[in-house]
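A brief tutorial aside. Many learners find it easier to grasp structure tokens once they have seen a single protein encoded end to end. The record that follows does exactly this for HAD-IB family hydrolase. Read the sequence first, then the structure, and try to relate runs of similar tokens to stretches of the chain.
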Amino acid sequence: MAALGWLTPRRRPATARSVLAGEAAAEAARKSALPEEAEESAAAPEEAGEPAFPVAGDTRAAAFFDLDNTVMQGAAIFHFGRGLYKRKFFQRRELTRFAWQQAWFRLAGVEDPEHMQDARDSALSIVKGHRVSELMSIGEEIYDEYMADRIWPGTRALAQAHLDAGQKVWLVTAAPVETATIIARRLGLTGALGTVAESVDGVYTGRLVGEPLHGPAKAEAVRALAAAEGLDLERCAAYSDSHNDIPMLSLVGHPYAVNPDAKLRKHARSLDWRLRDYRTGRKAAKVGIPAAAGVGALAGGTAAAVALHRRRR
């Protein structure tokens, strides 16, 4: 996998690195996409009072789904980290380093470039020298152990409606593209856009291609994939829980806020975007708080590591 996790999101416009990350993600997604099915079936209608969407047979439309807290409860890399730790993939000192780095980001609320680079380098160092095939094989096992039961049924139904309409459905996530691809395949989706880690001859080098696929980089990935696939973004849909994905949501003609954090909910209401919330009561509060705090994949992996470390003690 590309890394244990990714850094706290940065609020800034697209840069050359985010464009590079987006284009790399789009290329990787197309290479790993499932073959198109010949069958098409009618799309399920939306809630009462809303026009039928997606439009059956509109193949210039597609759907883009954020992963963490949108399709899956929690962060995918959180669950992946649990699986790797169970397999003694990491040393305790590496886990401790991740925990302190992420704690600093969350508590300080600022993003020192040197601190961020150090955290990113340490994450990538864990997979450096490992074969892509090794991590893919482990990822398949971990999906069955920790992820399969954490898919939101409501969001899964939304994705299925697009598939039933004959449209492609892509995951778009800061998680490593290999993890995202496994999840997409298990859910029967078309493919996934994720963070791309450089590999040579099937072995990870410890470097990223561009930067983590987050915020503006997600939008660039969707833009690049749409151009390559001949999609009309105005006819496409995007789904996310986080305000960090507003750049991606703003690209499409049909943006949805799913299990939204407070900032995204406010933004969505101001623009009359559609809202879907599959959480209830305390569960909604528990899931919403880390989303609003911008907790990414690194936070999930760190939390898993700390929790497991405490249990051992």
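Self-check: The longest helix spans residues 16-32. If you spotted this yourself, you are ready for the next section.
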